[in-house]
Amino acid sequence: MAADQQNLSPECRALSTALPGRVSFPASNGYLSSLKSYFSQQEAEISPHCVVSPMSSQDVSTAITILGAPNSTAKFAIRGGGHTVWAGSANIENGVTIDMRRINTIVVSEDKTITSVGAGALWRDIYIKLDSMGLATSGGRAAQVGVGGLTTGGGLSFFSARFGFVCDNVVNFQIVLASGETVNANANTNPDLWVALRGGSNNFGVVTRFDLRTFPQAPFYGGQVFYNISTAPQQLKAFADFNRGEGYDENSSLIQSFAYTSGIGFAIQNSIKYTAPTAVERPATFQPFFDIQPQLGSTMRVSNVTDFTTEQGAFSPDGFRQLYRTTTFKNSLPFLQYVYDLFAHQSVPPVQSLAGVQWALTFQPIVPAITSRSDPLGGNSLGLDPADGPLVNCLLTGTWNRTEDDTIARNSAVRLFTDIEEEAKRRGLYNKYKYLNYADGSQDVIDGYGTESKRNLQRVSQKFDPRKVFQTQVPGGFKLFTGENGQG
Questions:
Q1: Residues 149, 373, 90, CA angle at the centre, nearest 5°?
Q2: Which helix (DSSP H) or strand (DSSP E) does residue 363 occupy?
Q3: How confident is the model over 192-216, as pLDDT tens digits?
Q4: What does the CA dihedral 112, 116, 122, 127 come to, rounded to 10 degrees?
Q5: Nearest CA-CA partner of 479 in 450, 451, 442
Q6: What is the DSSP letter of 5?
Q7: pLDDT tens digits, residue range 94-150?
Q8: Do the beta carbons of residue 464 and residue 68 sit within 8 Å?
Q9: Hey, is 267 helix, strand or coil?
Q10: In the prediction, which pLDDT does 482 show?
Q11: In the prediction, which pLDDT does 317 show?
């Protein structure tokens, strides 16, 4: 689009000159398409001065050289799939948004052990290619989620108990630094940066390629089982028994959700996957869940990763007001019951009259089978210790229609998690880890990684970004230094 050069910000003018055809401006098709593609309305409502859509790492380098120049104060954001929900996480008002979605190539190595993917790729596209080859990689569980944010935020997958967090399976990052230099980070080259990027998010540069460990995978057993809310006590007991430190079946993946939906009421959903190399139907480890009655429906079947992640993603459509909030605590049936009761009786009532509301509490196991995988694979920055035993990742997701209801929704979420964390501390069950990809912008994710990990991340930032371009000019995400964390 031809833009009136007089009305452009200096950085957008420079970018348009240096990257012709790659920069779009308000009211253009490219600009509007980028905004409409965000998961949450809160992100889609933000208006950057311009959107840069690089097609190569060289394009990214050119953009960063301009935006991160020594005298520049330009604010910018980096987006991949655009699935983080809070405003300013991957978009920016009156700044520049770098939209990575055109950098989306997917190349499988000749020996089929590494898949190299562009940072703007979606997991859907990766799985379609790998399923056709009888392969898989540890990646996102909703097909429409992007590679970049999920992976640098840690990443949980159907295969986590076999292979660890998604970030643990990155053998190499190609990244553009604040200087504009493109480097690799792996076990032999820049190993400190390699570990920092495994959970350290957007604090060090713009990752342009991920080289992911890949493994053979046949179709496996999985799907969703839906239940009446009256089964909540049995569900919580089955979850607590399943989430154990000893004897955890590493082929297992479970997401347990309790949801209130406008016009429908309460229901329970278990997302069950069993990724054994040879498909096993109704495996014994999930039998307690299969035994719970009454069931409202089931989609259990043998299928592939593309199908399962498409199904999972369909429960989270684009285009609504969205809220995520998360915390972590030790596995305890009495405490799970306490958290569920708070959710059902304290958190839902204030929001249940909101137009289009869905309010869901989700529990997921973080067992030593997952956290113990990291060190043998080179380590990560999440700060989790297998000695902590089985943990519970607790997530609240909220969806509603109207902007005027934002405050009601947010207040209900904040109160719920304040009460959960205070009681968890009182009972000696609290763990300060917060899974970055589920966190709200007001939550201090980096502090939750622990003192040692946080200091290491700060050292790596000072080494590779001494002018703090990605701390001060990229306000979105979770920053590394006190007073700079939070919404952009």
A1: 5
A2: strand 358-366
A3: 999 999 999 999 999 999 999 999 9
A4: 0
A5: 442
A6: G
A7: 999 999 999 999 999 999 999 999 999 999 999 999 999 999 999 999 999 999 999
A8: no
A9: strand
A10: 65
A11: 87
What are the residue ranges of helices labelled H in 140-278? 147-152, 160-163, 191-197, 232-242
CA distance 299 to 15: 49
Are 251 and 283 in contact, with CB atoms under 8 Å apart?
yes
Buried b (16+ CB within 10 A) or exposed e, 436-472: bbbbbbebbbbbbbbeebbebbbebbeebbeebbbbe
The rounded distance, in Å, linking the Cα atoms of 251 and 158 is 8
The answer to whether 269 and 231 have CB atoms below 8 angstroms apart is: no
Strands 301-303 and 220-227: antiparallel
Strand, helix or coil for residue 357: coil
Give CA–CA dist 255/141, Å, rounded: 10
By the 8 A CB rule, do 92 and 74 touch? no
The answer to whether 357 and 424 are in contact (CB under 8 A) is: no
CB count, 10 Å around CB of 71? 4
Q: Detail the DSSP E strand segments found in 217-330.
A: 220-227, 252-261, 265-274, 295-298, 301-303, 321-330
For 434, phi then psi, to 5°, come to -130, 120
Stated pTM of the model = 0.96
